[in-house]
Design goal:
about 40% helix; alpha/beta; about 475 residues; five-stranded parallel β-sheet
């Protein structure tokens, strides 16, 4: 049996300094005050590192970022927010060695060593890196379930726990830095240190890709380095003013003018394809409006589509906040998620005219499309697929945790928000249910052509899967 022990920071992850992950924890689990406090202490933490006191700097970072936060909230952020940023920082050279050494036999042990508290990394390394064991520090938790900010053992005890894990057996290979402060390399038969030049000669057939992070949450788009964190703090007061102004513009001005005002407000809308003209007045021959079937990236998708079409088109909504509905410039129609009731609601709206619907039922930030509900295909043959995509610089527009009423504020706080709208041709009759196709076949076809347009991967994941994964009820872990 072969086994491998790898350090996380600076090896499997490119960045040897975990400070940005604690900034994320402070921002998402506590708020701006703790976020700002940790940033203010960064020069002291950096000074400790310069003078060879990295462990003291890390302990200070852990204390400021975590002390007084409920352990359940720490676990939630570690599950829903941090994995995406860990994944983006994976060192593929180290990962190739890691996979080629131990993934060709299920009996092999795969161990990751980290100075970061175990709870912050365990979800990511066990689910996305397929690791068997995580050896890290443990947080001290009060009897009321709050983290004290202290760790139970010093970092130099980590190597002792590896000895306990393997017993008389010696790990086959150790991947780590020479100066990691919790040296375990001497316990391994073979040692390898960055930059892992030998990884170029590995058998590519043995390489297994990390499991991608499809669902994640949190407000920040990029890792909050000290520099970017300072920019965020300086921008937020101005961003709130700009967001308020942008929302008021949308409420006051006619919708046909907003497309022309968007560049002046720091936004950009890229339109591709040919938008269909407004449906004519309802007649016996034309008893239903057009159903625009859109991919779902943010709560703004229907509004952007209406702005492009320069008319107010009602949008089917699922779980947006009441505040978002109140300030929406276009009519919103909330579904009940009871099938018979929703069928009547959608039919009634289509009888009045055009309608916008996102059959994924929830947003997905990554380049994946969730499974489309087949309900739309049952109700009309006048289907126009629309591929929506967006890019934001600082804040994500939609979140599953926290206050959803803040979604519009964070969305419009971005200095520049770019939307891309691609109109596909209306489905021909032979691609709809009128030709005898099942609703599921039609829904899958629409998902496929929209995925191909955006370059996204189509999945069978649903809204329920998303919230099960984000809540830890996915059966994969926890």
């Amino acid at each position: 049996m072969e086994s491998i022990v790898s350090e996380l920071e600076g090896v499997l992850l490119k960045d040897p300094n975990p400070f940005c992950y604690f900034m994320l924890m402070a921002f998402e689990a506590s708020g701006l005050i703790r976020f700002a406090l940790l940033l203010m202490l960064w020069p002291i933490i950096r000074l400790l590192e310069v003078f060879g006191r990295e462990d003291y700097g890390l302990k200070l970072t852990i204390f400021v970022a975590i002390a007084g936060i409920k352990i359940s909230e720490i676990e939630s952020v570690s599950r829903t927010v941090l994995p995406k940023f860990y994944y983006d920082d994976i060192n593929m050279e180290a990962w190739r060695i890691f996979t080629s050494t131990c993934f060709n036999n299920n009996n092999n042990k795969r161990v990751v060593v980290t100075k970061i508290p175990r709870i912050l990394v365990e979800r990511f390394v066990k689910v996305h890196l397929r690791v068997d064991y995580v050896v890290g520090t443990e947080l001290v938790v009060s009897k009321y379930g709050f983290a004290t900010g202290f760790i139970k053992d010093d970092f130099d005890k980590i190597s002792n726990r590896i000895v306990e894990l393997f017993g008389d057996e010696q790990p086959s290979l150790g991947l780590g830095r020479a100066k990691c402060g919790c040296s375990f390399l001497s316990l391994c038969k073979e040692q390898s240190q960055p930059p892992f030049l030998n990884s170029k000669n590995l058998d590519q057939q043995l390489i297994i890709n990390p499991l991608p992070v499809i669902f994640h949450d949190g407000r920040l788009v990029n890792r909050p380095t000290p520099c970017s964190s300072l920019i965020i703090l300086l921008w937020i007061p101005l961003g709130i003013v700009i967001a308020t102004f942008r929302i008021l513009i949308g409420l006051i001005f006619p919708i046909w003018t907003i497309l022309y005002l968007t560049p002046l407000l720091g936004g950009k809308v890229i339109v591709k394809g040919n938008p269909p003209p407004p449906s004519p007045a309802t007649t016996i021959a034309n008893s239903f409006g057009v159903l625009f079937v859109c991919t779902h990236r943010t709560f703004m998708d229907p509004l952007i589509l209406s702005i492009v079409l320069q008319r107010k088109i009602p949008a089917i909504t699922y779980s947006i906040s009441r505040l978002t509905e109140i300030i929406s410039p276009i009519p919103t129609v909330r579904l009940s998620r009871t099938r018979d009731v929703d069928v009547r609601i959608i039919k009634r709206q289509l009888e009045k005219g055009d309608l916008i619907m996102c059959p994924e039922g929830t947003t997905c930030r990554e380049p994946f499309l969730l499974r489309f509900s087949a309900l739309f295909a049952e109700l009309t043959n006048r289907i126009v697929p629309v591929a929506m995509n967006y890019r934001a610089g600082i804040f994500h527009a939609t979140t599953a945790r926290g206050w959803k009423c803040m979604d519009p504020i964070f969305c419009f706080m971005n200095p520049r928000l770019i939307y891309e709208v691609t109109f596909l041709n209306q489905l021909p009759e032979d691609a709809t249910c009128s030709s005898g196709k099942s609703p599921h076949d039609v829904a899958n076809y629409v998902q496929k052509i929209l995925g191909a347009t955006l370059g996204f991967e189509c999945t069978n994941l649903t809204r329920k899967d998303k919230y099960n994964i984000l809540s830890g009820n996915d059966g994969i872990f926890y």
